[in-house]
Structures are given as structure tokens and as C-alpha cells.
Amino acid sequence: MKENSNKDNSIDTNEGKLILDSHKLSYHYDRVEAWENNQTIAPVSVDMALTRACGAMCSFCYAMIQEPQERSNIKVKEALNLVDDFAEIGVKGVSLISDGESTLSKAYVPFIQHAANVGIDVGNATNGWEWEPEKIDQVLPHLTWVRFTVGAGKAESYAKIMFKDSNHTHVFDRAMKHIKYAVELKKKLNLKVTLGIQMVLVPEFKDEILPFAKLAIDLGVDYGVIKHCSDDEFGSLGVDYSKYEEMYDLLQKAEEMSNEKTKVIVKWSKIKDKGLPSYKRFYGPQFLLQISGSGLVAPSGMFFNARYSKFHIGNFVDERFIDIFKSDRYKKIMNYLASQYFDAQTMMGTLPIQHYVSEALDKHIKGISRINPNYKDKPLHVNFL
To answer: Which homologous superfamily does the CATH classification assign to the domain defined by 10-274+285-366?
Structure first.
């Protein structure tokens, strides 16, 4: 099986080097160095949502098992204060992804515009259903990337996976309409934003791999990415990671469908890990923090559920984020996750967003593979770890 030969798992695109199956710590070595010297560092990136609400019912959705938790309503003023706090401490990139559909929030447009004004890069993962042309016009010029969740390449399968009923193909049609609009607007305005679609690979829907790749090509997006499905430590979503190996040939065929405009990318490293990380200490959240659409600040989305309340640091709806960041509790929880007393293999879910970062830092500390500074040849989306 032929795999990407680039050392950093990057893909060369018309717009630059794209890294989706690795990390970008080399480009933020000043923070790695400060972290090694036991300094409290601001996260380079924050993954968050502006609401817990979502109209989809995706069968692969990790947010479904992040309940129960209190749902606070994030107001526009609170969202803008959050941006100001991010800017003050040195956060470089914010991904609107996490556990809700941020396009539904009243704070969505002003948040993105304000972040752009203060020099913070913003990316957005969305199902695209409520991402209508008027909204797209207001935010697309300010976004670094947009990634659309597309559960399958065929309308009926898409509706079954993302809306629980294969008859409701209107959701597929609506998403495709909005994606096509964004592709045309990017071309019309000559925008630098990267547009992609993503399939969360659930073994029982392996027949959707090639139709998904074809859809990416037909839409003319910059990339289509196929990734693993995360699960909690109890296997609540029922992901059988042993089945992934049976799909390697299909995944390779999907990648071979890439053309000059659209790259089909498989996140091989996570798929091959089969749900078990090589590390035990969880260093990643110090560099890549997650915040729930409820306003909850927790190290990782793996801990949003109320049963992990001992890892809940605060809520920016109730107090300013900068005060949460500077608190003793923030330091205490981050230090605990990075200590010998925490085991990422048994005390949390599988393959968190911080996986690549945690794996790299673990190998760096152990001297297995040192992270070296690289301030040249910066890839696309450099501020999103």
C-alpha cells in the first residue's frame, strides 16, 4: 500500500502545503521550548463552539455522548470578550468545531469578523445546512478554512447517517447547494480560504468511501478528507476499530482519485492506531484547548460530560476566560493530565483532537523523535495545530 511519503504527512496543493494527518508544532517552537521549561503557555489553537444546538443527528457524533452538562446560552458580548481574551494571551487560531453547530448562534458572524480584526485566524466545521448565502457572504472573506461534514457521498446514505432517515434527502441537497455557493464565491472574489469536505469513517458505511471521493471531485472543493471515528472509553458509539484494516484498499483507491484541483486525503495515522494511543500522559491540551458550546472550558472535548467534572476548569459565560486561564485550577488540571497519575489509554476516550500534538510531545520528551524549529516553508493553516 502506497502512502504519503512526505515526512510531515503533508499534501501539496495548488495553494500550498496542507497538513491534516500530523501536527504543526515545529512552526510554534517558542511555545514548545517554554513548555519544556515548565512555563504556563497560552494554547496556540482553541477548538470551540458558540452553541450546543445542532439540527443534525449524526450517528458518529461524539457530542451525543458529551451529555449531560448544563447548557448556558452564549451571548454576543460574551463571545466578543472571549476573542479579546484570546488575543491578549496569544491564541493564534480558533476552530469553530467542537460540540455544536456554531452557524446557529447569533454570535457566529460577529465572532468571526471580530477575530479577523484582531489578527486571530478562524476556521469553521459545519454541516452547511444553515450556512446560507447571506451568511456566507459575511464570513467567507474572514475565514482561513471551512470544512463541511459530509457523512456519505450519496444522498440517501447521507440522510440516514446524518438525519436518521434515508428519505430526508433534502438535507443533502441543502448542504450541496451551500457548498457550491461557497466554491463559486471563493473563485469570484479570489479568496485564499480553503474549502473541504470530511467523512467520518464508520465501518458499516465503507461502501460510501468511493462515492464520497467522487463527490469531493465533482464539487470542486480543495480537498475531501476521510478520518476515523472517535469513541469514549466505554465504546458507547460501538466503533469496531479492527474493521478499519479491511478498508485500506478502498481508502487507497479513494486517494488515487485526487486530481490537480481536489485532493482526497486519508488520515492514515489515526486510522492505523485503531483507537489506542501510544502515549499515557496527555500533554496536548496545553497547546490545543477545547471549549464547549455551553461555555465550559475543559482541557479536551473528551471531558465535556458531567462525569468528568473534576476536569472542568470554568465557564466563560460566568467569568472572563482570561481569569480562567490565569487561575490555579487551570494549571492544576493541565499538570495532572501531564503527570504519571493520568493514563490517556484508559482514563479517556479514543483519539482526541489533541492526539497528534500529544503523540509528538510524548516522543519529544522521551527523545524518540525531537520536535525541531521550522520557521520557513510554512504550511496552510499554520495556526491550527
So the answer is: Aldolase class I (3.20.20.70)
